[in-house]
Design brief:
Blueprint lengths: L2 H6 L6 H9 L6 E4 L4 H10 L3 E5 L8 H12 L2 E5 L20 E5 L13 E4 L8 H11 L5 E5 L7 H9 L5 E2 L19 H4 L7 E5 L4 H9 L4 E5 L4 E3 L4 H14 L5 E7 L7 H13 L3 E7 L14 E4 L4 H5 L8 E2 L1 H7 L15
Parallel strand pairs: 1-5, 2-3, 2-4, 4-5, 6-7, 6-8, 8-9, 11-12, 11-13, 13-14
Antiparallel strand pairs: 9-10
Helix pairs in contact: 5-6, 9-12
């Protein structure tokens, strides 16, 4: 690591990507940082902001108090912690949620370029190089994964993409990447609602490799592309077996079939700026009513399964985060479908053509 990298806290080759994310991001002022470090604190001190809301993802809540104290001391701002769970850059704090705050700091996420912010926001992506790219590439070779492989990554491990590509190439494995659409701040990036960087190259690869932790992104990727999906955790250096896409599709298609006779539909609409799809909700309501079905919009902030108890609906279609329907289905008292699944349930799309609910 060079002296410039040590003093800035940002790898030299990361700077152009961060600039790209800032340039593509409309709305309130936003800044992007690789880590909690000197650059962030200097930006806070020079910003003129006095009161800042700090939002942390679930995995960092245990150390949130220490983080808040560090930001308060080195950034010279007053800090309040946002206590609700944070699932992505789509549900950043609003002025109503943090009254009196001048700005927000969002940890663990990159900005979503086409989402307009309502508060000046500092995004701290918590970049982590993770494991040795040579060791990881040797794992891929030993597992005899097919080539070429499409590669997608969570933002925390984006810095590992280039060295892993080089190490894999030296071992005869071609890793292919895509650009993605306007919702992605970076090429190769995966969001829970958007895998367009993978969809663009699916026809050119024999499978996909997700670089990151957990099953959340690999499951979404497996639904979005009709290819085998492996996941490589660079922190534990573990390569997971491919996602069982057939089982995922079987479960979703069974749920869709159960809704074919539903007559009364609740259409779920989020008030979060990054998840609000009111035009989509209105279009679905019109389609339902045109087929003689009852449909009503239900507006919420963060959806709790208890909010739907006792309501007179046969099923729901969710226009907020698609993972509410896909990952939390068992928590709800009635079936919850995504918009493409809803169109299958009412007969506008064939059951044989499953489509992931991609946010653009």
């Amino acid at each position: 690591m060079t002296a410039d990298e040590v003093t800035s806290g940002v790898p030299v080759d990361l700077a152009p990507l961060i600039e790209r994310a800032e340039e593509r991001s409309p709305g309130a002022v936003r800044r992007v940082f690789a880590t909690v470090g000197p650059d962030l604190f200097a930006a806070l001190r020079s910003s003129g902001f006095r009161r800042v809301a700090l939002q942390v993802p679930a995995g960092l809540t245990r150390g949130a108090r220490e983080l808040a104290d560090r930001v308060r001391t080195e950034g010279r701002v007053d800090v309040v912690l946002v206590t609700r769970a944070c699932f992505g850059a789509c549900d950043f704090p609003s002025p109503d949620e943090v009254p009196g705050m001048d700005a927000a700091i969002v940890l663990g996420h990159s900005p979503i370029p086409n989402v307009r912010l309502t508060l000046p926001t500092f995004f701290v992506e918590m970049r982590h190089l993770g494991g040795d790219p040579v060791v990881l590439a040797e794992m891929l070779a030993a597992a005899q994964l097919p080539s070429p492989l499409g590669l997608v990554a969570s933002v925390q491990h984006m810095d590992l993409v280039a060295p892993l590509e080089a190490a894999a190439r030296a071992r005869g494995i071609e890793l292919t990447t895509g650009e993605g659409d306007r919702r992605l701040a970076y090429p190769v990036q995966a969001l829970g609602c958007n895998y367009t960087s993978a969809e663009q190259i699916a026809h050119r690869v024999r499978g996909f490799l997700f670089l990151g932790t957990g099953e959340f992104h690999p499951r979404g990727l497996a639904l979005a592309v009709d290819r085998p999906v492996w996941s490589l955790d660079p922190l534990t250096q573990q390569l997971a077996p491919p996602i069982d896409r057939a089982r995922l599709l079987r479960d979703r298609l069974l749920l869709i079939a159960q809704c074919r006779d539903a007559r009364k539909w609740g259409v779920l609409v989020s008030t979060f700026a990054g998840q609000n799809r009111s035009p989509t909700a209105l279009a679905l309501i019109r389609k339902a009513r045109a087929r003689g079905l009852d449909a009503e919009a239900l507006v919420f902030g963060r959806l709790d399964p208890a909010d739907l108890l006792g309501r007179d609906f046969d099923a729901y279609v969710n226009t907020a985060c698609p993972r509410i329907a896909l990952d939390d289905a068992s928590l709800y008292p009635r079936p919850v479908l995504t918009p493409p699944e809803f169109l299958q349930a009412i007969g506008e799309r064939p059951l044989t053509e499953y489509r992931f609910d991609t946010y653009h």
